[in-house]
């Protein structure tokens, strides 16, 4: 549903107020106060037109945020022994916020707001709002309280008992990317709050207006302004803040570039939880089934090119068994050709420009045996600013041996846009294929498209991706409110969406051993030697 009604808690009108002479004004939240910008960014144009767009703070003074972090102790805003009423209170906040997001006007408001800053189809934007709403519904009522469930074990004597608790870190930070402006920062910031932490949130400034508006909705729903800080700033300024707060911020959850993830990890001596880039793979198994061909092709197109390929779970490389290649590859080309800028089934690329995209495509096509299957050209007839990319959905077929051998680094470089590598393979190539998967450095999502349990097990047993879909309907992209979403194979891996993800990412284990009761009958002061 499309609407022009602005909810009463919203300060931005994405249906008309983000263009022309009155750009949307975004604010910081620090120490319980909304703070207007003293200086704003001038390099954030409308991604569809290049016009003046949003007025986002270019925050210079980080001292108030450093001081605000210090207001939260290591024991958190609450924990199982302190301020336990807050578990119930946050459950009620979730219930109220979920009810608001279920209203047609509010749902349409956030859907449009997402689409304005991260242009993708209405359905893709709507899905993000729905995932966030269902997440809130999942933790409404007693949902937050149950996250803090611990355990006890009897001790050696009467009165002795060990108790295990989930304990907050205290002052923490959430750093979120541009591709999911609502879902990622909302789910991670709320997870931090649920477990008793006080988060400082920084979202990519191109899209940070979305989380700012969602935070206003949470405050409208009962969240205290003092529970969370929000900063809009450049990445280097956030780095300076982390340096200045090194003795205060206890943990950082980062979603985004693997390079930046390592920089942050080194900066804070490993006190991180990471959901960084994924060069995500899909394998189409040998058990060809003609009745599934259209579906498998459709899902592959969705995984590679929805949101213009700008999903951390996007299909980066597709391994197609020879039994499927004749039927599948032409269908992929046909499906990709249907994507148009008019309905935003293809749109701007916000982290690569056309020059960079063209350079990568050219380098891949220079690999011996490489073949352009479709795409390969910039979009025409548009007003997307040149700081962003505008490219056709593109696929390049390369020999499996090229990925396995000297071109591995190039062919497993993630182009965060509408681009994928396609390899065909035969039964004799399974070991080579598995050796490629072993070498890939990041293990976020993957898919095994097969109904053969022997083949499924062979692949699953030899890989480590944290979120792996398996079966004839397997995909690489999915909604993380109904299952764990996050990488594996790295002890710093963050999860998102489920109780297990929140517990492991946003709390640590604390053991308290109660030892009380009567004086032991056989106790005496040990004799001195």
Total count of helical runs of at least 4 residues: 17
| Helix-strand category | alpha/beta
Helix content: 25-40%
Uncertain segments are: none
Indicate the mean pLDDT: 94
Describe the protein.
This protein is of the alpha/beta class. 34% of the residues lie in helices and 17% in strands. The chain has 17 helices and 19 strands. The chain has helices spanning 63-69, 85-101, 104-117, 122-138, 143-147, 183-194, 208-220, 235-244, 258-267, 293-305, 322-337, 354-365, 400-404, 408-411, 430-439, 453-460, 499-506, and strands at 24-25, 28-30, 33-35, 54-55, 151-154, 160-167, 171-176, 198-203, 229-231, 251-256, 272-276, 280-284, 315-321, 371-374, 394-397, 419-425, 445-449, 467-470, 508-515. The strands form five sheets. A seven-stranded mixed β-sheet has the order 14-15-16-13-12-17-18, with helices on both faces. A five-stranded parallel β-sheet has the order 9-8-7-10-11, sandwiched between helices. A hairpin with a 2-residue loop joins strand 2 and strand 3 (33-35). Helix 2 crosses helix 7 (208-220) and helix 10 packs across helix 11 (322-337). The termini are far apart.
């Amino acid at each position: 549903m499309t609407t022009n009604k602005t909810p009463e808690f919203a300060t931005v009108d994405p249906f008309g107020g983000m263009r022309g002479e009155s750009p949307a004004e975004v604010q910081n939240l620090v120490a319980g106060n909304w703070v207007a910008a003293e200086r704003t960014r001038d390099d954030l144009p409308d991604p569809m037109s290049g016009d003046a767009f949003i007025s986002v703070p270019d925050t210079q003074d980080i001292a108030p945020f450093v001081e605000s972090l210090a207001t939260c102790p290591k024991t958190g805003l609450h924990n199982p022994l302190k301020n336990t009423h807050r578990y119930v209170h946050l459950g009620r906040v979730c219930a109220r916020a979920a009810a608001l997001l279920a209203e047609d006007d509010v749902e349409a408001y956030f859907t449009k707001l997402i689409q304005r800053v991260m242009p993708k189809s209405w359905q893709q934007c709507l899905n993000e709002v729905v995932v966030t709403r269902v997440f809130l519904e999942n933790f409404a009522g007693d949902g937050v309280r149950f996250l803090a469930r611990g355990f006890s074990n009897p001790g050696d004597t009467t009165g002795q008992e060990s108790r295990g608790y989930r304990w907050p870190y205290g002052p923490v930070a959430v750093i979120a990317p541009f591709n999911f402006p609502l879902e990622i920062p909302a789910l991670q910031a709320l997870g931090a709050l649920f477990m008793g932490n006080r988060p400082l949130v920084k979202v990519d400034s191109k899209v940070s207006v979305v989380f700012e508006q969602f935070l206003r909705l949470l405050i409208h729903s009962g969240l205290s302004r003092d529970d969370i800080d929000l900063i809009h700033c450049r990445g280097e300024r956030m780095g300076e803040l982390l340096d200045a707060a090194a003795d205060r911020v206890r943990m950082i959850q980062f979603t985004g570039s693997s390079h930046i993830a390592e920089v942050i990890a080194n900066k804070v001596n490993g006190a991180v939880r990471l959901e960084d880039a994924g060069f995500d793979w899909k394998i189409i198994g040998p058990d060809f089934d003609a009745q599934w061909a259209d579906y498998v092709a459709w899902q592959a197109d969705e995984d590679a090119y929805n949101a213009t390929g700008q999903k951390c779970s996007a299909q980066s490389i597709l391994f197609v068994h020879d039994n499927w290649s004749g039927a599948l590859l032409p269908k992929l080309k046909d499906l990709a050709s249907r994507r148009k800028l008019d309905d935003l089934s293809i749109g701007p690329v916000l982290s690569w420009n056309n020059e960079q995209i063209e350079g990568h495509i050219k380098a891949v096509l220079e690999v011996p045996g490489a073949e352009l299957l479709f795409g390969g050209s910039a979009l025409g007839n548009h007003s997307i600013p040149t700081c962003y990319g505008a490219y056709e959905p593109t696929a390049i077929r390369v020999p499996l041996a090229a990925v396995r051998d000297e071109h591995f680094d190039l062919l497993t470089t993630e182009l965060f846009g509408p681009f994928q590598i396609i390899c065909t393979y035969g039964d004799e190539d399974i070991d080579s294929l598995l050796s490629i998967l072993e070498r890939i450095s990041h293990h976020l999502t993957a898919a095994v498209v097969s109904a053969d349990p022997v083949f499924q097990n062979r692949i699953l047993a030899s890989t480590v991706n944290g979120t792996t879909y398996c079966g004839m309907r397997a995909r690489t992209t999915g909604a993380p409110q109904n299952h764990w979403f996050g990488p594996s194979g790295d002890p710093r891996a963050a999860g998102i969406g489920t109780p297990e993800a929140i517990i492991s990412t946003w709390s640590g284990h604390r053991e308290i051993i109660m030892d009380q009761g009567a004086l032991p009958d056989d106790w005496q002061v040990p004799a001195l030697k």
